[in-house]
Amino acid sequence: MNMAKDLILTPSEETTLSSRGYRLLNKLGEGSYACVYLSELIGPNEEKDKNNKSLACKIIDVSKAPKDFVKKFLPRELDILVRVNHPHIIHIHSIFQRKSKYFIFMRNAENGDLLEFVLKKGPISEAQSRVWLRQIALAVQYLHDMDIAHRDLKCENALITSNYNLKLADFGFSRFVIDANGRKIASTTYCGSLSYAAPEVLRGMPYHPKIADVWSLGVILYIMINKAMPFDDTNVKRLHEQQMNRRWKFRSKVIDSLSEQVKVLVTHLLEPDITKRWRVEQIVNSEWLAMDSRLIHLSPAEESALAQAQVERRTHLNSISKRQPSEKKLTQIEDVKVLKANIQENVNKFGSTTTVVKSD
Ligand SMILES: Nc1ncnc2c1ncn2[C@@H]1O[C@H](COP(=O)(O)OP(=O)(O)OP(=O)(O)O)[C@@H](O)[C@H]1O
Q1: Which helix (H) or strand (E) holds 46?
Q2: Could you say which of 129, 198, 252, 264 is the most buried, measured as most Cβ atoms within 10 Å of its Cβ?
Q3: What percent of the chain is modeled with pLDDT above 70?
């Protein structure tokens, strides 16, 4: 069997995975409590995967993770992963749990993450940044419409496919932001990476997580066009002061070539006053995005995903108001819990999405 050398799977886990038609290959990356492996479909599944996309498998071993992660963050991540379905969010193929391990099979992003890309290729042209910011902003708009905040938006969580489309990933800090009565829940947990955190998050007071997500989008856009961070984050106090005093500037190397519209957009996203900071809809409808006429209208897949967000939002609200366990989608087969089965129709629906760069 072609198992990854550095992977510690028991023989019965190997058998379980292969009986479900998956094989793990080499390691792709590592997070705090997870390892991600390239994987492939074997047997009858292989033929079913008409799109012939390679997969990545994130393995989380809860026996090695802290209680807070196991009890709070992981259940939220899984609950959200089984619900989301958007052309610019990494497609989840299936999720299994066996004993202490969770296996999340998802679309592999062959071209790594946005940070690696910028570091390797330098500042990204405005035309390409526009396409990518739009893709990630539409993914965030979809989440926000479902009343989900991502809370860890950063270049490392924007993955690039073989066709150079961006897919949002890593829902480890994401959460629903309304309670059973439909009231907004303010976040108190400090989440995400310092460099992308909004000033209100750094202050440690309750904050509106959707509005904080928009700040992080501003940092991502800044990084794309400058190949630099907007603020010095080596000292939290200084970072906060710089954010509050709007002490950032475009790099001299790029400033003269940038459009006024992109400057306006970054300024409205890196706005310390949350009452003035733009919302994600304003990014989607911004003059900067409209400079490329192909980007003005939603594709059919983008449009239907956005409509579905409203349906999912109501379903979630109903389920929490009736206090049904959110794991109602969970089914038990043998000793393996299947949290999300391989949903081929979604691959078909979104696998051929026409995005503005190339379809994938
Ligand atoms: N679908 C994918 N395709 C390709 N590589 C991936 C994919 N998903 C994750 N990776 C790689 O694995 C790494 C870790 O994945 P992920 O960020 O989901 O784990 P995590 O434990 O939640 O990370 P963190 O501790 O940063 O929150 C990523 O940085 C990326 O390099």
Answers
A1: helix 44-48
A2: 198
A3: 84
ipTM of the complex, rounded to two decimals:
0.95
Q: Whose CA is nearest to atom 24 of ligand 1?
A: 31
- β-pairing, 336-340 with 22-30? unpaired
CB 161 within 8 A of CB 109: yes
The residue length of the chain stands at 360
Q: How far is CA 35 from CA 11, 28, 260, in A?
A: 18, 8, 42
Tokens of 356: 């503005």
Q: Find out whether the beta carbon of 202 lies less than 6 Å from any atom of ligand 1.
A: no
**Strands of the chain, DSSP E:** 22-30, 34-41, 55-61, 92-98, 101-107, 148-149, 158-160, 166-168, 175-176, 331-333, 336-340
Query: What pLDDT was estimated at residue 335?
Result: 63
**Which residues, including other chains, have CB under 8 Å from residue 112's CB and lie 6 or more apart?**
159, 160
pLDDT at 121: 97
Which segments of the chain have a pLDDT < 70? 1-8, 44-53, 323-360
Give the active site residues.
Answer: 152
- Closest by alpha carbon to 134, among 353, 281, 307? 281
In DSSP terms, which residues pair with 176 in a beta bridge?
148
Question: What pTM was computed for the model?
Answer: 0.87
Is 128 in contact with 135 (CB distance < 8 Å)?
no
Q: Are 254 and 209 in contact (CB under 8 A)?
A: no
Tell me how far CA of residue 15 lies from CA of 1, 21, 77, 136, 197, in angstroms: 10, 10, 26, 37, 42
Distance, in Å, from the CA atom of 26 to the CA atom of 45, rounded to the nearest integer, reads: 20
Q: How does pLDDT run across 95-143, given as a tens digit for each residue?
A: 999 889 999 999 999 999 999 999 999 999 999 999 999 999 999 999 9
121 labelled binding-site residue:
no
Q: Is the CB of 159 under 6 A from ligand 1?
A: yes
